[in-house]
Amino acid sequence: MSWLTNFVLPKIRAVVTKKEVPENLWQKCPNCGQMLFRRDLEANLNVCANCGNHLRMDAEQRMALLFDEGRSTAIELPKAIADPLKFRDLKRYSDRLKEAQARVGGRDAMVVAHGTIGGLPAVLACFDFAFMGGSMGIAVGEALLAAARLAVLQEAALVVVPASGGARMQEGILSLMQMPRTTLAVEMVKEAGLPYIVLLTDPTTGGVSASFAMLGDITLAEPGAVIGFAGARVIEETIREKLPEGFQRAEYLLEHGMVDAVVPRKELKETLARIIRLLMSPAPATGLVLAAAGKGRAAAGGKTAP
Amino acid sequence: MRHFLEFEKPLAELEGKIEELRHLADGGDLNIADEVSRLETKVDRLLRQTYAKLSPWQKVQLARHPDRPHGGDYIAGLITEFTPLAGDRGFAEDRAIVGGLGRFRGRAVVVLAHEKGADTEARVRHNFGMAKPEGYRKAIRLMHLAARFGLPVVSFVDTAGAYPGIEAEERGQAEAIARAIEACLQLDVPLIATVIGEGGSGGAIAMAAGNSVLMLENAIYSVISPEGCASILWRSSGNAQDAAEALKLTAQDLLKLGVIDRIIAEPLGGAHRDKDAAVTATGDAIEAALKPLLALDGPALRKQRREKFLAMGTKGL
Ligand SMILES: [Zn+2]
Q: CB-CB: which of A80, A184, A211 is closest to B306?
């Protein structure tokens, strides 16, 4: 690992940024309006106990949920050029960026960590929706490329968890160019024969959905997540019609053949671990397992597929 | 009927006057001929002045000019033996993207072109150049065909964006665009993309992740329309001009950012004032871009494309 730490990914550091205790003890479920005691909500993986609504999780919570024993090591991500267009709307983009970064210790909208899932090596790249709507600019593209390179080096599965409204407009065309760039990241992982798994969470839209997020070997989605290309408002304005119930929700995508499964958060870890094991560890664990399974592939002492 | 943009109006008036005088001069009146030539000089000077310093917003309008040459004009002007090929084999034919086989300066190629349509009927037929998933899936199918027979792919990009509609979402607009980008990047034949008018976001990059990306002088290429950007960031679509400035969507800015490889000069006054000249200049630029790529094999082409896109975003303006 040392050449990796020194050369490719400088300064790997453990990410145990303890979150401050939020001031609000109660949180209202945006779906049913129920007031939820925050500690109960967190214990229930941010799922409303009343209606089952899956509230957003931040990147750190996501890492804790998905990695074995909740343990992982975050990597330091390459520094991307800040504000390449000197963009200014009602406010300078460089100021917006600084404010957003100050709240999260200087990073951008993606966190990348490695560890094991189901006992097998995995790299997880999570979006932080709270960081400018999880929008994808150069920093996110660089982060995903770093995640892909790390997965290839560690012969690990790459799991990406989008939560993003799409491209970061303030980086103009360079944010659009992250669509081919992140597609190249996916290509690296696939060419190395490693699994690329996407877990679509709320929301996954725009340039993020129209690039790496829809290129998974396996595509899972969380219940109720909004997933689509065009925003609902833009569609309504274009066609001047009310949108159907459940439009662009995870279940709607499942119905239309766009995702492999909608997985409740409680089952996510186990499902993900199982899929990674099935893809990366296809040989039977022991002869006993084969016998128990009855008719496995011709067991007669032969070699099994690698 | 010719269309004139707001900033073209003074030109339109002068040109109207010239027309009138010409009409009168049929009798061979020398004084009128003098007046005509004086006005023509004035038009020429006005054109040069106006077009020497177009604002980004003026370029947005030019890029969308209804008389601007569209995909079909480039195919008609540059591709011989054009043989349109339809359908995605899964759902439908999408006329927002025209595709097929043909010869570009003698060499067989696969052509892909957004088509906005030149009149109302054609605009409706081509859905204003806004493709649905089946359009991108047809493009993918034709790219695979090109790869199978070793034919270069020549694409012409001109779209306000992918179509935002219920059916498009239902059939996986996002997935279709993602796969089209992937198909571009994996091609082991040359892909030359030219932004001829509007390079609208995901709908554009789906056909533009090429070995060489060219752009007409007054075309635009952006992550979002200035109107869309303004309504989100300025909370008013009235700030579209500000957004057009801020987005850096002109060919000149994109060249500096390393996103495009070459700017194709347009005839004075814009491509719509001399379509044939614009189309020919585009053909020359495509030929020049294609030539060095023809010497590369499949893996080298993929590598060149990969490195080109990975290098983007390292420098700002
Ligand atoms: Zn609830």
A: A184
Residue B67: the pLDDT is 95
- A55 SS3 class: coil
Residue A23, pLDDT score: 64
- Provide the token pair at B14: 């002068």
Q: Of the candidates B227, B225, B193, B215, which has an alpha carbon nearest to the alpha carbon of residue B281?
A: B215
- CA angle, residues A253, A257, A260, in degrees to nearest 5: 85
**ipTM metric:** 0.95
What tokens appear for B118 in the block?
Answer: 């030149």
B138–chain A nearest CA distance, Å: 17
Q: Report CA(A214)–ligand 1 centroid distance (Å).
A: 28
CATH code at B149?
3.90.226.10
Give A237's pLDDT tier (boundaries 50, 70, 90). Answer: confident
Whether B219 is in a domain gets the answer: yes
Same domain, B101 and B133: yes
- Helix pair B173-186, B298-310: axis angle to 10 deg: 120
CA distance B166 to chain A (A): 7
Q: What's the CA-to-centroid distance between A46 and ligand 1, angstroms? A: 10
Contacts of B233 in chain A (CB under 8 A): 89-90, 169-170
The per-residue pLDDT for range A83-94, each reduced to its tens digit, is 999 999 999 999
**Which chain B residue's Cα is nearest to A204?**
B174
pLDDT at A8: 38
* Structure-token match 């409740």, residue found: A264
Tell me how many domains chain B contains: 2
User: Which residues lie at CB < 5 A from ion ligand 1?
Assistant: A 29, 31-32, 34, 48, 50-51, 53
Domains of chain A by residue range:
2-15+56-293
Residue of B223, B225, B256 for testing the chain A interface, max A β-carbons within 10 Å: B223
Instruction: Please tell me whether residues B238 and B275 are part of one structural domain.
Output: yes
How far apart CA A208 and CA A179 sit, in angstroms, is 7
Domain co-membership, B66 together with B28: no
Q: Which fold has domain A2-15+56-293?
A: 2-enoyl-CoA Hydratase; Chain A, domain 1 (3.90.226)
Q: How far apart are CA A19 and CA B317, in angstroms?
A: 37
A121 and A113 Cβ atoms separated by less than 8 Å = no
A53 has pLDDT over 60 = yes
B83 and B190 in a common domain: yes
Mean pLDDT across A29-34: 94
Nearest CB partner across the interface for A183, out of B181, B229, B233: B181
Is residue B315 assigned to a domain? no
Residues B72 and B125 in one domain: yes
Contact B223 A176 (CB under 8 A): yes
Distance from the Cα of A148 to chain B's closest Cα (Å) equals: 13
Q: Residue B78, Cβ neighbours under 10 Å: how many?
A: 23
Question: Same domain for B95 and B226?
Answer: yes
Task: Provide the pLDDT confidence category of residue A241 given band limits of 50, 70 and 90.
Answer: confident
* Pair (B32, B120) in one structural domain: no
Which residues, in sequence order, are CB contacts of B24 under 8 Å at separation 6+? B32
**Domain encompassing residue B275:** 60-310
